[in-house]
Every structure is written in C-alpha cells, then in structure tokens.
Amino acid sequence: MKTTSVMIVGVGGQGSLLASKLLGRLLMDEGHDVKVSEVHGMSQRGGSVVTYVRFGEKVYSPIIAEGEADIIISFEKLEAARYASYLKKDGLIVVNTQQIDPMPVIIGNAEYPENVLDELKDKGLNIWALDALALAEQAGSSKAVNIVLMGKAAKQFDIPYERWIKAIENTVAPKFVEMNKKAFDLGYNN
Fold first, then answer.
1. 99, 96, 101, 71: which is closest to 83 by C-alpha?
2. Total-model pTM
3. How confident is the model over 152-170, as pLDDT tens digits?
4. How far apart are CA 100 and CA 31, in angstroms?
5. Contact (CB, 8 A) for 179 and 148
6. In Å, how far are 31, 60, 150 from 56, measured between CA atoms?
7. What is the CATH number of the domain that holds 76?
8. DSSP 1
C-alpha cells in the first residue's frame, strides 16, 4: 500500500485542527498507520496554518515535501495558491472560494490577487472549488467550513460514507454532531 499525503491549509481559527483530528482518527480506525503533524503557523485568527496527514501501511514521518501532496484541502483561496507547489502532478486541491484578507491587505500594503483559482487552473492543477462558507451557514454555523470541505474531499478516499459519519460522531462535541453531519452532507453532495 502506498503512502498518501494530505495537506490541510487555511487561516488560523478556521478549524484545521479539528479537520486533521477527524481525518487522522478515521484513517486509524480504517487500519492505516497515520502520522499527523502539529499545526504549523499562526494559530491566532488571520495567520497561515498548515497540517500534514500521511497514511499507509507504514509511515515514518508526517512531513510533506514540495510535489508530494496527493490532496490539498484549502480553507481559503490564497492559501491554495500559497501551497500549490506541494501538490503532485496528478493531485487534487479541494478549495473553499472564500476570501480572507491577510494582514498586508487589511492594512493597505498589498492587494488581494484577482483570479487566484483561475491562475491555478491555468497551470493545469485539478481544482474542486466550492463556497464552503455558504454551505456551512446552511448547515447552521459558519464555523463548519472545515467539515463541509472534509465532506467534499471524502470522495477522494476509499472509505464508505457511513464511516465518515461515525468519525464525526466520535470526534465532534455531542452538541455539535448533528450540525456537523449536515455540513458534511452538504460538502459531500456538492
């Protein structure tokens, strides 16, 4: 069994830690050796954050080098562009179409690049884009963007839908389980 490498990238405060915990737990339950990195980056809202999840028969390190990621799950467009060089040639970026201005844009020292996703597609990258924020709000909370994106990415894993739902039930705080299951469904079906 080959080792599969997944990067979860976004902005601090978007729930990348929960997403990596959910994925790591599910993959372990499926019998894989799993290595999950600590979150690298600014944990405060606004800073770039990346988590690595690697799984297979035997995994020795959680670190993913440039050109090695099978899947990048990006919570924001600019973060997808920032980490696109890590994607394998036949890899996939699942990206939220939301724009979150980084500090240089907020203070007026830079402009948010236009057509970020179009530029990635023009480079031949495989992009699955969706408005995960709108779907999360439809599920009941803007904080469920992470689970919407996991729902969309789930189709890239050879794991039955029911096992994803079980992992949500085992990972998310009980009072948020139903809302997160709805968020997962909305991502999965869009």
1. 71
2. 0.93
3. 999 999 999 999 999 999 9
4. 37
5. no
6. 9, 10, 19
7. 3.40.920.10
8. -
